[in-house]
């Protein structure tokens, strides 16, 4: 028999390299395998159970196949036919009952989890109610019990049940926070889907649209920022504070006529049509995915001011297919508005 070990030795470095390469794919904050709340933890438990059963089945089947391959392989000159087991009632019962047992082991906790996680908290007074509306290509978050509407960044208190009512203003999208919960579709036409989740510790969790919805689907990100109860109350108060327009009267007039005809900031502007700009300088991102940070290690990504200038100057180039028009403003006006927005920070 030909010695295959030299071939295997040559393939091992290649396989090891591929394993290292694939292990670097993805992000820790965009992984359902890194649960940060009880809902995500329960979903991961179901995944682990199903994967364990599948691996067990694969190992047993392959072990039997390999055993049969070598134990009953035909040898030169050997015309003996192995004992046939067709019609063996005992074996047929065994390989029928075992899969049924495995299905029960997997099915019972899966059904319990599916129905348990489908619990509706929309009428629960102790839950934080948030109405999510998906737009091409941004997210709107309304807190009806607090009288607040914001965009792109959902602020929640830790260790509180967050009840979501999700729908779409245009096409089908999908609301997904991998570290906190599974995904639900957001449908147009007033078709509302419900879900809930909980964050057990403070942090920023990345959310995505998980349904292909147009040319900028990949840029339809949002952030969930979990804070302590006191910080959440301060944020609610800060969101309701009256807005202060730019000190320069000309820039204030330009901002009012060019921006507040579609957007809102504080108590000024058009509420509920396009993203609310209140606290723009405090957000984790500009346009949902451009970094909003002055951290030197992200210097190539641009600061909030740089990314605001880039976004206001040519929204189509940043996020193709979005509905924000290119404004007829000079570079100086754009830079002044970007500077004003970058300074709108909420203290919470």
UniProtKB/TrEMBL annotation:
One of its GO terms (biological process) is ATP synthesis coupled electron transport. It comes from Paenibacillus sabuli. Keywords: Copper, Electron transport, Heme, Iron, Membrane, Metal-binding, Respiratory chain, Translocase, Transmembrane, Transmembrane helix, Transport. Residues 24-121 form the Cytochrome oxidase subunit II transmembrane region profile domain. InterPro entries: CcO_II, CcO_II-like_C, Copper_CuA, Cupredoxin, CuRO_CcO_Caa3_II, Cyt_c-like_dom, Cyt_c-like_dom_sf, Cyt_c_oxidase_su2. Binds a copper A center. Its EC number is 7.1.1.9. It is found in: Cell membrane; Membrane. One of its GO terms (cellular component) is plasma membrane. It is a multi-pass membrane protein. Its cofactor is Cu cation. Subunits I and II form the functional core of the enzyme complex. Electrons originating in cytochrome c are transferred via heme a and Cu(A) to the binuclear center formed by heme a3 and Cu(B). GO terms for molecular function: copper ion binding; cytochrome-c oxidase activity; heme binding; oxidoreductase activity. It comes from the Bacteria. Residues 246-345 form the Cytochrome c domain. Signal peptide: none annotated. Pfam families: COX2 (PF00116), COX2_TM (PF02790), Cytochrom_C (PF00034). This is Cytochrome c oxidase subunit 2. Belongs to the cytochrome c oxidase subunit 2 family. CDD domains: CuRO_CcO_Caa3_II.
